């Protein structure tokens, strides 16, 4: 089959009539997919909100599979993989970590060094990565997820890579731009790169106030990029009047409105997005006490978000290789709590959503774990250095547990120690925008209170755009400054 025929089939598989820009992008992607595999090739698709990127992907996957080509869908987080699968007609989607790494290393490898990419045994497969703008060049242990992804994909015969993202969103933490969406980054890795951008909305902006505001923010960001250095930036503007899916909320009405959202769509379909871990901690405390009426620190039904990648120190639960940063878990039982080494821990039974390729009636995966209670409501992202030091010296000096065991053997056992490898989690009712990135919820409450005047720059534009585009059905703006609504 030639590229022209392949493109025609993709356009036919779309649930709408493609506009001229989409036709051109489909043609370019078809040439990329059908080209002889003479080089390690990648295609970067930068698609803004509402441009039909996910529908295009679903059509591409269906045509590839119809012609016997394997399509592998990947995303940086579990939530993003779930959304990607749902938007691709429930084609299985996996987290990048879960797919590309060998998972026999367990906690020892997690503590002593980076995981090793597995061998890609597929031939002529097309790997499609959504939310690629979230992929950084290094994690907290210094290894590059992007480089490992590239190494894994091209270890297969004739495989190629499509990276999809939205460069208007926040880049990875600590970086000015997304390396995975930058063609020069991939070219430096020896990859031949093609790229395209979707900017035209696939549906009328009047149909969605959420999309209207996202499109307005993105267009202003494009103009700001051409301003001379030092020029005064325009203040972001959000439209709320005349829109049925965008609502301004003040503090007095908030408990009643969020209760309605919980009752209508459930806890897992409602999220608060804030600008800091401190504000997220305050909202989590308020929601649990004033809306959910939960007096105990941890109860059955609580939603927790993983704050740091967790590798199991012993036998892994069936169906889980590891738990990724950003995964959301549900507390099923609280088995007990304890105070040790100057810190508090809880033994709990947690549930984890089944894999994306599991049948619809598959039960959640249940497993027991030890979690750190000190981090659950703290105003920091993960346990700080002084906390790790206190835990380390406490474990190493515990003669009651280790008896006459020498220091070197205690150190060796530290890698699988249940307290040292305890799961770091936080309440998942309110999160920072970086934590929310990659996910979508029916109801999104965006905290716009207490925005200092010096924050009204490009970073705020990206933050607002990312937060707004997390909403599927309704966007709630909490106490926005007047200048944002003019």
Task: Give a description of the structure.
With 486 residues, the chain is α/β, with parallel strands linked by helices. Helix content is 34%, strand content 21%. The strands form 4 sheets. A 6-stranded parallel sheet has the order 3-2-4-5-1-6. Strand 17, helix 16 (458-468) and strand 18 (471-478) form a beta-alpha-beta unit. Helix 1 (3-13) packs across helix 2 (20-34) and helix 9 (209-224) packs antiparallel against helix 16 (458-468). The relative contact order is 0.14.
Main sheet? 6 strands, parallel
Envelope shape: globular
Strand content: 15-25%
Helix residue percentage: 25-40%
Number of helices: 17
Radius of gyration: 23 Å
What structural category arises from helix and sheet content?
alpha/beta
Distance between the termini: 54 Å
DSSP strand tally = 18
Write out the strand line-up for the largest beta sheet, numbering strands in chain order: 3-2-4-5-1-6
Nearest-integer average pLDDT: 87
Low-confidence stretches: 104-113
In short:
Helices cover 34% and strands 21% of the residues.
Question: Topology, pairings included?
Answer:
Elements: H1 3-13, H2 20-34, E1 41-47, H3 53-66, E2 71-75, H4 78-87, E3 93-95, H5 96-100, H6 106-112, E4 126-129, H7 145-153, E5 160-165, H8 183-188, E6 192-198, H9 209-224, E7 246-249, H10 254-265, E8 270-274, H11 277-291, E9 303-306, E10 310-311, E11 322-323, E12 328-340, E13 343-352, E14 365-372, H12 385-396, H13 399-402, H14 407-414, E15 425-427, E16 430-432, H15 433-436, E17 441-447, H16 458-468, E18 471-478, H17 482-485
Parallel strand pairs: 1-5, 1-6, 2-3, 2-4, 4-5, 7-18, 8-16, 8-17, 17-18
Antiparallel strand pairs: 9-12, 9-15, 10-11, 12-13, 13-14
Helix pairs in contact: 1-2, 1-3, 9-16
């Amino acid at each position: 089959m030639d590229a022209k025929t392949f493109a025609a089939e993709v356009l036919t598989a779309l649930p709408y009539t493609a506009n001229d820009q989409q036709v051109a992008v489909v043609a370019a992607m078809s040439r990329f997919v059908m080209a002889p595999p003479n080089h390690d090739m990648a295609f970067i698709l930068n698609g803004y909100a509402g441009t039909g990127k996910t529908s295009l992907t679903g059509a591409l996957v269906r045509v590839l599979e119809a012609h016997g080509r394997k399509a592998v869908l990947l995303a940086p987080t579990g939530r993003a993989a779930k959304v990607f699968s749902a938007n691709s007609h429930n084609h299985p989607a996996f987290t990048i970590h879960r797919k590309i790494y060998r998972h026999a290393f367990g906690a020892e490898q997690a503590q002593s060094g980076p995981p090793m990419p597995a061998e890609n045994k597929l031939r002529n497969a097309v790997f499609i990565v959504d939310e690629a703008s979230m992929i950084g060049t290094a994690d907290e242990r210094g290894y590059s997820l992007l480089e490992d992804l590239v190494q894994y994909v091209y270890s297969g015969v004739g495989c190629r890579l499509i990276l999809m993202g939205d460069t208007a969103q926040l880049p990875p933490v600590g970086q000015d731009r997304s390396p995975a969406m930058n063609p020069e980054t991939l070219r430096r890795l020896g990859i031949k790169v093609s790229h395209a951008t979707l900017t035209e909305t696939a549906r009328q902006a009047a149909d969605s106030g959420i999309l209207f505001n996202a499109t307005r923010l993105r267009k202003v960001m494009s103009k700001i990029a051409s301003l001379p250095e030092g020029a005064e930036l325009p203040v972001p503007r959000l439209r709320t009047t005349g829109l049925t899916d965008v609502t301004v909320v003040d503090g007095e009405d908030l408990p009643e409105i969020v209760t309605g959202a919980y009752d209508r769509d459930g806890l897992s379909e409602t999220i608060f997005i804030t600008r800091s871990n401190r504000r997220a901690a305050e909202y989590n405390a308020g929601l649990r006490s004033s809306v959910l009426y939960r007096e105990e620190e941890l109860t059955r039904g609580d939603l927790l978000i993983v704050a740091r990648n967790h590798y199991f120190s012993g036998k892994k639960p069936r169906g889980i290789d590891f738990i990724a940063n950003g995964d959301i878990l549900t507390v099923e039982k609280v088995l007990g709590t304890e105070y040790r080494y100057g810190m508090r821990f809880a033994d709990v039974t947690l549930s984890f959503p089944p894999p994306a390729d599991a049948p619809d009636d598959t039960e959640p995966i249940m497993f027991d774990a030890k979690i750190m209670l000190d981090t659950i409501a703290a105003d920091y992202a993960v346990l700080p250095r002084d906390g790790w030091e206190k835990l380390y010296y406490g474990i190493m000096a515990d003669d009651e547990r280790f008896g006459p065991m020498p220091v070197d053997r205690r150190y060796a056992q530290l890698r699988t120690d249940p307290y040292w490898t305890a799961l770091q989690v936080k309440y998942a009712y309110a999160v920072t925008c970086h934590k929310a990135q990659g996910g979508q919820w029916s109801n999104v409450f965006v905290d716009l209170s207490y925005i200092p005047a010096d924050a009204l720059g490009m970073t705020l534009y990206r933050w607002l755009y990312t937060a707004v585009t997390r909403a599927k059905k309704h966007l709630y703006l909490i106490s926005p400054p007047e200048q944002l609504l003019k």
